Amino acid sequence: MPMRILIAVLRTIRNSPRLAIGLAILLVMVLVAVFSPLIVKGIGGSTDPLELAAYERWLVPGPDHLLGTDQFGRDVLAMVVSALSVSLQIGAIAGVISTVVGVIVAFVAGYKGGWIDGILSTFTGILLVIPTFPLLIALSAYAKNVSLFQVGVMISIFSWPFAAKTIRAQVLSLRSRPYVDLARVSKARDLEIITTELLPNLLPFIGVGFASSALGAIFGLVGLEVIGLGPGGVIDLGQIIFNAINTGALTLGAWPMFVVPIVLLTLLFAALNMVNIGLEEVYNPRLRGVAGE
Amino acid sequence: MTAEAPPAVATGNSQESASPASGVRAWMSRHPLAAYAVRRFGLYLVELWGALTIAFFFFRLMPGDPIQTLIQSLQQNYIYNQQASAEIIARYRAEFGLDGNLLSQYLVYMKKLILHGDLGPSLISYPTPAQDVILRSLPWTIGLLGIAAVLSWIFGLALGAVAGWRRGKLGSRIMTNLSIALSHVPFFFVALILVYIFAYSLGWLPARSAYDSNINPGFSLAFIGSLLKYGLLPGLSIVLIGTFGWILSTRMLMVPVLGEDYLVYAEAKGLKPWRILTRYALRNCYLPQVTAFGISLGFIFNGNVLVEQLFNYPGLGTTLVTAIQQLDFNTILGVTDIAIFSVLTAVLLLDLLLPLLDPRVKYWK
Predict the structure, then answer these.
(1) How much is the pTM?
(2) Predicted-complex ipTM score
(3) What is the pLDDT of residues A105-115, one digit of tens each?
(4) Chain B neighbors of A274, CB-CB under 8 A
(5) Which intervals hold domain ABC transmembrane type-1 (chain B) (predicted)?
(6) Surface of B (184-243) touching A: CB under 8 A
(7) Domain boundaries, chain A
């Protein structure tokens, strides 16, 4: 069974270069994040490159410090690598939580229909129009010293409606397919129909929901950090950008401090979006060739 | 609320004569458009009420005591230099709508908001009411954001149509892939790079504020020039990224239309390609983009907070961040309420106007 899934995934990727490129970029980033402690150690050698005053302050990029050092004498490359890992973790945590909540809401609403759908959809719609950024800023006031996981939970409070909306539309279209009717006629229970008939067919859209929630979560945290309201103790890529702005890296010409995090995040957003569009292209026949070549 | 195929308005009269039923149901079947408008308006009210309520309780549950902050700031300014008595604190509580339990606070707030459009006093510039503080910064945001949003919509629609029209060609493919890669990049990143290049490295354009403080605000050429000069970088960063998103969605709407029979016919008739593109293809796919534009206004607001903050632009975003730093509940809530109200109203108006613009759109049965 796992072998079959793997083959199916590989076949899908082969058919969509966009999906392949997106996943490849993500994979490289995840690998860098996973091995970030080793990379940081490799950069520092005997000293910890993230320690305050590990080196001289504001060193320009050179062979010893590929991206220079910051205002506290920390190695920028080492900081960026470990911050990337934090950003990815936030995306993964918030992405998983909001996808799970979104999937549950979408299935209950889309499959049950009727007034339950009415109430849930209206509620999702209401949450969608509330601008999330002010609420997120307000939430950050609660959270001065919180763990990475708590930040993820905080952000996913606002990102699940997007996932729910995307998936519900698909549940609605799948619900009336003949094979679902067949399962219903043969007296399968609701839960059984959902897990064996609907869920496998919705996997790509759940993937889309996950990618967009992760994207939203990373962006949300970066936004908080950039205006200096991020939760303390979490150093993600946004925090580095905030430091760069606040310490005057712009005027000092210390461009690696903000250009590198921005390029990395842009690459990450591009990769997630490519996965999104790639998945939709492959699994939504109406779009096949539409968004493509 | 799905798009239903005809028979709708035209058959109204025949139904009327066929079934002389009375009551609401009959009226609704005789006036489908009006019934749809009433139902849609009802949904609007429910959504508006729900969103405002959620926002209210969300911010009230925030920790921190704004009255203490106010008294501290008054003491710092020597307006008030004795220890605050319980009586005075109670008076301020009443003024800020913070007395009584949460439910009565909510009722008082909603009553003032609906009947008088009153958001309560602000804290960041006490005793000015929050609605005045917001109204002062609103024109800046509308000016910057409104113009940038409209421009990126127009550019995106035009470029997206061309990208769809010339699909398969190298230029179109580059544009599509570029859009996919860049459409989700925060405005703020582009803004930061632009500031670094044009303001700090080259020194061509200013990096902060909305106009030259040496020029008196007014309808003078110098002031308008200064406005444009200062608004160029923040506006450009929004337009650059915003356009990519619209290119992608327009292209996705455009390509299926290009396969339609009536386009083949138009081509066979010998119409000029430009005319086919604008009058036949684009006209049939731009309406969903009008709706999407209304919805997008709210999301642009999210990203815009950061851009305004970076440029120290005196708009809603900067006001919001200042208000949050000083625990100014009334202003924070007011900004959120305005964003909610404008998005919902925009979507409502577009939903009501769309059936008039496009005869194919039928929401009613």
Answers:
(1) 0.77
(2) 0.75
(3) 888 888 777 88
(4) 180-181
(5) 138-354
(6) 184-186, 188-189, 192-193, 195-196, 200-201
(7) 17-55+64-291
